[in-house]
């Protein structure tokens, strides 16, 4: 592993590039890999050390990464295309076969089944650290990519011929196109003057790993509670592991409720958690360290401006209740690289507005529709008025009894077109 890092760090950046990708997270790494086979000079910049992406993941309930992604089939296929999936599958993951969704204030419930859809799984739960490590390792094969770590961007200047970036260590780097993949608090988005719409969800998310008394059986759970949705996402220690008693939880709650939960000791938190999930997997035996962060929705009014383009959370962030954030970002990555590649084939420049607008049109509508759908779900299940609760439960049970409609929605979320 040390030699792998040294091989990357030996590459000397020439400071002038066709494309600079800012952000070596899941989306930035995927974009870099997709450009790896192109005859373009590419730089990948991140404010953190490269070693943080390739650190070994330890086993044990206290060492699961609390940050996980529920990958759709479409996302899994993208990771296969960039040769990252083999490494991920050799580490650990958990494909979930069923999902139970129900309303805490009634009898409404929907059950999704991979078998009903004719699929091997509904999706796959993967720790983010494993995704980062696998994607980083694939980039060692690419000779046209330079890696600049740790580089924090302080200034951005767009000229007629390029974009100039200045860093905290005094370096100046230029490119024909800058791709911002540096997260929901994107520095590049700010420096380039993109306008965004932002509002607070009035929810905080608590994430951690728990061990349950009963095996999860590769079933994911989501319960809509008055104070916010609670999700249990199944984990496995290894592919051969028969101990199916670990779950990653994402508990979205009002700030008051989240503060109350974070103030509990582990024993009381486990009791509250078990009661809130109605004991579906038996008692909660143990809980790893908890993390809590506020949830905000952001959406850039435009994804491309001049020679700067946004992707992933830099362009849009979404409530985690459906686990679609990383999936939307990976679709951004493919759409952006395809638009640039097709533009080059047609004789256009990589920063041509026609090229970048094609990407924006393809992704903005899809992302907005998913964001508004999640906002609608959040508002619907937060409503406590009796008539709304009654209609909500009738609707859930009605949808569950209509397999054609239910499976259509499931396939859309999974990225299956037919």
Description:
- With 418 residues, this protein is an alpha+beta fold.
- The protein is built from 14 helices and 20 strands.
- The chain has helices spanning 2-9, 26-34, 51-54, 73-81, 85-91, 114-117, 128-138, 187-191, 255-262, 266-276, 325-345, 353-382, 386-400, 403-414, and strands spanning 16-22, 42-45, 68-71, 94-96, 98-103, 109-113, 123-127, 145-148, 153-158, 163-167, 172-180, 196-212, 219-225, 228-235, 246-253, 284-287, 291-300, 304-305, 308-310, 316-317.
- Strands 5, 6, 12, 13, 14, 15, 16, 17 and 20 form a nine-stranded mixed β-sheet that branches. Strands 1, 2, 8, 9, 10, 11, 18 and 19 form an eight-stranded mixed β-sheet that branches.
Radius of gyration: 22 Å
Number of strands: 20
Summed up, the helix count is 14
Q: How much helix is in the residues? A: 25-40%
Q: Report the average pLDDT across residues.
A: 84
C-alpha termini separation: 42 Å
**Biggest sheet details:** 9 strands, mixed
What percentage of the residues does DSSP assign to strands (E)?
Answer: 25-35%
Q: What spatial form do the alpha-carbon principal axes imply?
A: globular
Task: Show unreliable segments.
Answer: 6-13, 385-396, 398-402
- SS content category: alpha+beta
């Amino acid at each position: 592993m040390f030699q792998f890092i040294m091989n990357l760090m030996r590459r000397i950046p020439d400071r002038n590039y066709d494309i600079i990708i800012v952000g070596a997270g899941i989306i930035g790494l995927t974009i870099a890999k997709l450009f790896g086979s192109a005859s373009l000079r590419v730089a990948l910049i991140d404010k953190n050390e490269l070693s943080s992406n390739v650190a070994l993941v330890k086993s044990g309930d206290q060492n699961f990464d609390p940050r996980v992604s529920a990958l759709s089939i479409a996302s899994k296929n993208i990771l296969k295309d960039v040769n990252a999936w083999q490494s991920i599958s050799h580490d650990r993951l958990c494909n979930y076969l069923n999902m139970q969704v129900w309303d805490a204030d009634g009898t409404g419930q929907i059950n999704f089944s991979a078998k009903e859809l004719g699929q091997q799984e509904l999706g796959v739960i993967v720790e983010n650290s494993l995704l980062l490590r696998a994607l980083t390792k694939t980039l060692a094969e690419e000779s046209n990519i330079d890696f600049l770590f740790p580089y924090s961007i302080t200034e951005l200047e767009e000229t007629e011929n390029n974009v100039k970036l200045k860093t905290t260590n005094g370096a100046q780097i230029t490119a024909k196109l800058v791709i911002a993949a540096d997260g929901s608090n994107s520095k590049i988005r700010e420096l380039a003057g993109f306008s965004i719409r932002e509002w607070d969800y009035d929810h905080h998310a608590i994430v951690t790993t728990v061990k349950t008394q009963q095996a999860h059986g590769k079933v994911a759970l989501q319960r809509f509670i008055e104070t916010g949705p609670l999700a249990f996402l199944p984990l496995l220690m290894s592919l051969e592991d028969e101990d199916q008693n670990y779950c990653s939880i994402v508990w979205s709650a009002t700030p008051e409720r989240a503060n109350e939960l974070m103030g509990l000791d582990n024993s009381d938190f486990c009791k509250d958690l078990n009661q809130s999930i109605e004991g579906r997997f038996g008692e909660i035996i143990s809980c790893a360290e908890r993390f809590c962060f506020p949830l905000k929705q952001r959406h850039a009014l435009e994804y491309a401006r001049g020679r700067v383009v946004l992707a992933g959370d830099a362009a849009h962030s979404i409530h985690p209740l459906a686990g679609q954030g990383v999936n939307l970002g990976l679709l951004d990555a493919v759409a952006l690289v395809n638009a640039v590649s097709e533009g080059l084939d047609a004789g256009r420049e990589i920063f041509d507005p026609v090229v970048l607008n094609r990407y924006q049109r393809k992704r903005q509508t899809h992302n907005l529709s998913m964001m508004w759908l999640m906002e609608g779900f959040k508002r619907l299940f937060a409503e406590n008025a009796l008539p709304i609760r009654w209609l909500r439960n009738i609707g859930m049970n009605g949808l569950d009894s209509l397999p054609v409609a239910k499976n259509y929605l499931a396939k859309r979320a999974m990225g299956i077109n037919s």
